[in-house]
Design goal:
By secondary structure, this protein is α/β, with parallel strands linked by helices. It has two domains: 3-41 and 179-283, HAD superfamily/HAD-like (Rossmann fold, 3-Layer(aba) Sandwich); 72-175, Rossmann fold (3-Layer(aba) Sandwich). Helices cover 40% and strands 19% of the residues. It is built from eleven helices and 15 strands. It has helices spanning 22-31, 47-56, 69-80, 92-100, 123-134, 158-169, 181-190, 205-215, 251-258, 260-266, 271-283, and strands spanning 3-7, 13-14, 17-18, 36-40, 66-68, 85-89, 104-105, 112-115, 138-141, 147-150, 153-156, 174-175, 198-202, 218-222, 241-243. The strands form four sheets. A six-stranded parallel sheet has the order 5-4-1-13-14-15. The chain has a five-stranded parallel sheet with strand order 7-6-8-9-12, with helices on both faces. The longest helix is centred in the C-terminal third of the chain and has 13 residues, at 271-283. The chain is globular, with a radius of gyration of 21 Å. The two termini are 35 Å apart. The structure holds magnesium ion. Magnesium ion is lined by residues 7, 9-11, 202-204, 225.
């Protein structure tokens, strides 16, 4: 059994356009019962919002196929401090995830200041958050992406808002989203896969590929997003495979290339069984 952690922006779609072949790849995974999760460092949307967006683009996805950095952050905080409190700079996806994990959203004396992306924050909120951090609230970021692609260009991401609070407070934020092992490990466990069985597909070296490399997952970089082949030379780490887009990928081919032993087993008698038979026949 193998499965995939799949980034969305730059892999499945770009802005409001679906990347050709993405629908076919996902449909094939579902038809073959291959486990997968869409992984996003965008904390604005809920699981249902993301699934709806994918369906409208013609991608065969349900809520259970979506794992956001807001979910990872809320689950992590619930483990660290059950039934805690948070002051939130962020939107619906983050608020819902925190509520679902037993967190109360407060305007005073929070355990954590939690920052996600959003278009609705203002300077008063940043000012309030700064005072809370200086009074001892812990600063948590859903992710540190500096900017987010939108259909009409880039806008400042969660990392930019966090940087303002870090500079003002002198406190470093703790980030849960990709490339943090917290989010990637949680996603792997959600699919009940082992490290060796997990394959990451992404378009960003600093998040998708770095996260996968750190955890020992197989990594596939697609060039349909923010990274070009020339960029690769700048990095100390490299993906296991580079393809132009997800359209080039086929699950069966990948398994045959990377895990040849397992294909043999599926073809009938596996290696261990054959070896056992030889041992038995040698004994008799
Ligand atoms: Mg991406």
């Amino acid at each position: 059994m193998h499965g995939y952690l799949i980034d969305m922006d730059g892999v499945i779609y770009r802005g409001i356009d679906v990347i050709p072949g993405a629908d076919r790849f996902i449909h094939a995974l579902r038809a073959a019962d291959v486990p997968f999760l869409f992984l996003t460092n965008n904390s604005q949307r809920t699981r249902l919002d993301v699934a709806t967006k994918l369906q409208r683009l013609g991608i065969d996805a349900e809520e259970r196929h979506v794992f956001t950095c807001a979910m990872a952050t809320a689950r992590f905080l619930a483990q660290q401090k059950p039934n805690g409190t948070a002051y939130v700079i962020g939107e619906g996806g983050l608020l819902t995830a925190l509520h679902n994990n037993g967190y109360a959203i407060v305007d005073k004396d929070p355990d954590y200041v939690v920052v996600g992306e959003g278009r609705t924050f203002n300077f008063e909120m940043v000012e309030a958050a700064l005072r809370m951090i200086l009074a001892g609230a812990k600063l948590v970021a859903t992710n540190l992406d500096a900017n987010c692609p939108t259909h009409n260009g880039m806008r400042p991401g969660c990392g930019s808002i966090v940087a303002m609070l870090e500079t003002a407070s002198g406190v470093k934020a703790f980030s849960v989203g990709k490339p943090s092992p917290i989010m990637l490990r949680a996603a792997r466990k959600e699919l009940a896969l082992t490290t060796d069985q997990t394959i990451v597909i992404g378009d960003t070296m600093e998040t998708d590929i770095l996260g996968g490399v750190q955890l020992g997952f197989k990594t596939i970089l697609v060039l349909s997003g923010g990274t070009s082949r020339e960029d690769l030379a700048r990095y100390t780490y490299r993906p296991d495979m580079v393809v132009e887009s997800i359209a080039e990928l086929e699950h069966g081919n990948l398994v045959r290339e990377w895990f040849p032993g397992e294909v043999r087993e599926r073809g009938g008698m596996g290696f261990d069984a054959r070896r056992e038979e030889m041992l038995v026949s040698a004994r008799t």
